């Protein structure tokens, strides 16, 4: 993994094993993605196990997505590309407490990782970052985005709205306050019936917490070298 400094005071840029970049937060002492492959992880855990699962399993024509931790915008960007490819309307609400500055996000190499992107698809990632906070914007013909600049613990979650939750917080040992039954009960209540929360985390304590809230769990193979990931369904 190659490490480079960025202009942001508290993050460094890394190249992960699949060639895509991620960031390391000095404040949290954690990377934003798996060091074995940022783009692989995002596609596997959030796009395929969450978003595409709803297309295949429930034939949804409109999918409401909540993301916990927008970070580099990788999941938002991939979701917008997915919506364009499948001609499915998506609405994304993503929350971030520590937005990155453009000098950092401009260095991310995600655009060069996917083949056959046209110019507007390449421009999309920087448009995601430059769009206003707390305002709904249209990213492409199928994607609406609202970025909320706030703390996920104090954000008011609407009831019974989301079909998919990309739960992409830092790990439980880094941010235990985001893996409590109290907080996850709020997220559970914000989901529609048959909604799916996906996370890279497959720790026993987390899976027991999800089951205690009422989720049914699908244990799925994880991305890259990871044995397992978790999909929690509001049945
Ligand atoms: C694992 S990274 C997210 C990766 C992101 N989805 C991506 O694709 O780059 C976790 C993110 O959650 C943000 N975060 C941490 N604590 C938060 C909080 N209490 N409220 C909102 N965002 C938070 C961090 O700043 C970081 O961007």
Secondary-structure map:
Blueprint: E1 3-5, E2 11-15, E3 21-25, E4 30-31, H1 38-58, E5 62-68, H2 74-86, E6 89-96, H3 102-105, H4 119-130, E7 136-140, E8 143-149, E9 162-167, H5 181-190, E10 191-199, H6 204-213, E11 216-220, E12 229-233
Parallel strand pairs: 5-6, 5-9, 6-8, 9-10
Antiparallel strand pairs: 1-2, 2-3, 3-4, 7-8, 10-12, 11-12
Helix pairs in contact: 1-2, 2-4, 5-6
The structure holds S-adenosylmethionine.
The site of S-adenosylmethionine has 19 residues, from helix 2 and strand 6.
Descriptive keywords:
6 helices; alpha/beta; 235 residues; binds S-adenosylmethionine; 8-stranded mixed beta sheet; 4-stranded antiparallel beta sheet; 30% helix; single chain; Rossmann fold
Brief overview:
The chain is α/β, with parallel strands linked by helices. The chain is built from six helices and twelve strands.
């Amino acid at each position: 993994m190659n490490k480079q400094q960025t202009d942001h005071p508290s993050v460094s840029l890394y190249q992960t094993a699949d060639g895509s970049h991620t960031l390391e937060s000095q404040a949290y002492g954690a990377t934003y993605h798996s060091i074995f492959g940022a783009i692989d992880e995002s596609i596997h855990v959030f796009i395929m196990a969450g978003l595409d699962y709803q297309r295949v399993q429930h034939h949804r024509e409109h999918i409401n997505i909540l993301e916990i931790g927008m970070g580099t915008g990788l999941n938002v960007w991939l979701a917008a590309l997915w919506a364009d490819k499948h001609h499915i309307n998506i609405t994304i609400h993503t929350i971030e407490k520590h937005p990155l500055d453009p000098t950092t996000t401009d260095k991310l190499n995600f655009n060069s990782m996917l083949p056959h992107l046209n110019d507007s698809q390449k421009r999309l990632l920087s448009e995601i970052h430059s769009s206003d906070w707390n305002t709904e914007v249209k990213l492409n013909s199928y994607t609406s985005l609202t970025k909320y600049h706030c703390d996920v613990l104090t954000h008011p979650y609407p009831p019974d709205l989301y079909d998919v939750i990309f739960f992409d917080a830092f790990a439980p040992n880094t941010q235990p306050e985001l893996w409590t039954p109290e907080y996850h009960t709020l997220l559970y209540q914000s989901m529609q019936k048959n909604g799916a929360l996906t996370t890279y985390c497959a720790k026993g304590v987390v899976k027991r917490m999800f089951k205690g809230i009422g989720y049914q769990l699908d244990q799925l193979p994880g991305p890259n070298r990871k044995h397992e990931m978790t999909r929690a369904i509001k049945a």
